[in-house]
Amino acid sequence: GESVGLHLPTLSVQEGDNSIINCAYSNSASDYFIWYKQESGKGPQFIIDIRSNMDKRQGQRVTVLLNKTVKHLSLQIAATQPGDSAVYFCAENNYNYGQNFVFGPGTRLSVLP
Amino acid sequence: DAGVIQSPRHEVTEMGQEVTLRCKPISGHNSLFWYRQTMMRGLELLIYFNNNVPIDDSGMPEDRFSAKMPNASFSTLKIQPSEPRDSAVYFCASSLGGAGNEQFFGPGTRLTVL
After folding, report:
1. Strand, helix or coil for residue A84
2. CA angle A104–B23–A85, rounded 5-degree value
3. pLDDT tens for residues A62-93?
4. Does A83 touch chain B if contact means CB atoms closer than 8 Å?
5. Dihedral class, residue B70 (left if φ above 0, else alpha if ψ from -120 to 50, else beta)
6. Which of A2, A89, A99 sits opposite B89 (nearest CB)?
7. Which chain A residues have a beta carbon less than 8 Å from that of B38?
8. Measured between alpha carbons, how far is B16 from B23 in angstroms, rounded to an integer?
9. Which of A83, A81, A103, A74 is closest to A5 using CA atoms?
């Protein structure tokens, strides 16, 4: 897959540090959110999801935080590794209205040795 | 388990030619999605099928684009005639349930129209 966006926001972190990737979503009625990871030459891959009745959800090395008041979503990656280098997308959906997912523009994460 | 399968992985064609992209969803999934990804516009949903029926094709750019899903295990996206601005990576994704459930993406087809 192609990398997205000549002007794609980029986050550079040192290996072993924590990463925080932010996403502002557009629809206050959205009630389901997913973070996807896209590595070079591959399709997006599910990382973690969260529903609007929660404000935090943890996975393995990843945590998603949801702030509905300001329509903000963040993905925290603990102890970032070289394999975490990729483009990360947030996607929002309003399941009750059967709406399709709307994807954000993405953030490129570069892990420095 | 086999994921979503797309073919071809790369396609280079000349303007005006017909292009057909193919997708095999994950067995048992009943929703299928076609996306287009470009540098300028990011990831855009083109069309969404549920139980082989097109549910939402509002993202299809124009009449040059058409998509079919003749059965639960196969879908095509056709562009005729193709134009240079159609150059992009086209992803197929499938999910179990409707549009609001986790989607599993294929590896994509990189299309270049000269």
Report:
1. helix
2. 40
3. 999 999 999 999 999 999 999 999 999 999 98
4. no
5. alpha
6. A2
7. 2, 4
8. 23
9. A103
Q: Is B1 exposed, middle or buried (0-12, 13-18, 19+ CB in 10 A)?
A: exposed
The residues pairing with A35 across neighbouring beta strands, listed in sequence order, are: A48, A90
Nearest residue, CB atoms, A5 vs list B33, B42, B108: B42
Among A31, A108, A89, which Cα is nearest to B93's? Answer: A89
Question: Comparing C-alpha atoms, which of A57, A81, A53, A82 is closest to residue A68?
Answer: A53
**φ/ψ bin of B40: left (φ > 0), alpha (ψ from -120 to 50), beta (otherwise):** alpha
- pLDDT 10s digits, A31-72: 899 999 999 989 999 999 999 999 999 999 999 999 999 999
What is the C-alpha separation between A72 and A47, in angstroms, rounded?
17
The per-residue DSSP string of B80-113 comes to: SS--GGG-EEEEEEEESSSTTS--EE---EEEEE
Are B99 and A98 in contact by the 8 Å Cβ rule? The answer is: yes
Cross-chain CB nearest to B100 (options A5, A6, A95): A95
Contacts B102 to A, Cβ<8 Å: 34, 46, 49
- Is residue A79 within 8 A of residue A16, CB to CB? The reply is yes
Contact B102 A32 (CB under 8 A): no
